[in-house]
Amino acid sequence: MTPEDRIHALGIWQGPIEIVPITGGITNRNYLVRDHAVRRVVRLGEDIPVHHINRQNELAASQAAHAAGLSPAVIHHAPGVLVLDYIESKALTPEDIRHPEMLERVIPLVRACHHDIAREFRGAAAIFWVFHVIRDYIANLEAANSRYRQLFPNLLAKAEWLEAAGGPFEIAFGHNDMLAANFLDDGKRLWLIDWDYAGFNTPLFDLGGLASNNEFSEAAERSMLEAYYRVPLTEDLWRRYQAMKCASLLRETLWSMVSEIHSTIDFDYAGYTAENLARFERAYDAFEQDR
């Protein structure tokens, strides 16, 4: 059955529908669907065990995020299908998020994610522990005889050092995929979307991901941390943050290596791997220099 056939078969539409693919998804196929009354976003995607993606967890997180006022409503769901309310909005870019005025709007949304969603979440919740994810990715890559296997002993050693350096750890409900495109601006407020990787984690992972994915300057990173924690930045917090930022970049690198083998979505994963590996090495070298 084609994606269009699956969407037609949902039985929730009023009259004929128009289906337009939404570009950019690299773990789902997303569509804007219009019937004679409303527009909806339809996300098609099965569980992806190699990436720790469980669609039941994504559904529960999406519902909790809406209940917390952060994300669009879930209109309908079925195995492999999530239908969301459509928000007329613009997806942010890294350039948008780097703007100081936009970052001032983004930080309260991230804080609300960490503090409010857990109160609304129902059912068994996931934990997204980046160092477990890193070890599991490397084990899967070894089993698949990845072309990057000569790098893994060194990357594992660096991950172990980052895990030791990152503590003590706070625990909060994390989004765990702080790409610019997951923030929507409707002209009045911001929304946070796409809960594929949601689960309990340390807030510094999301903050490190926000900075690394959007290429913040050091000044912007320090400003972000002070705005989030609402206290002057200490050297201890800065050190722990740097460790989690490195872990975020290493996880993104390994995610792309795994996707090179397993993904069927048309995307330049090899280029993405090279880009993120270089960024990880630069961040790790800076982290080491501060020891």
TrEMBL record:
PANTHER family membership: CHOLINE/ETHANOALAMINE KINASE (PTHR22603), ETHANOLAMINE KINASE (PTHR22603:SF66)
CC per GO annotation: cytoplasm
Protein's organism: Rhizobium grahamii CCGE 502
Keywords from the UniProt entry: Kinase, Transferase
Keyword RNA-binding belongs to the record: no
InterPro entries given in the database record: Kinase-like_dom_sf (IPR011009)
One Pfam family hit: Choline_kinase
Upper classification of the organism: Bacteria, Pseudomonadati, Pseudomonadota, Alphaproteobacteria, Hyphomicrobiales
CDD domains: ChoK-like (cd05151)
GO biological process: phosphatidylethanolamine biosynthetic process
Molecular function as annotated in GO: ethanolamine kinase activity
Aminoacyl-tRNA synthetase recorded as keyword: no
Signal peptide (from-to): none
Name used for this protein in its record: Choline kinase
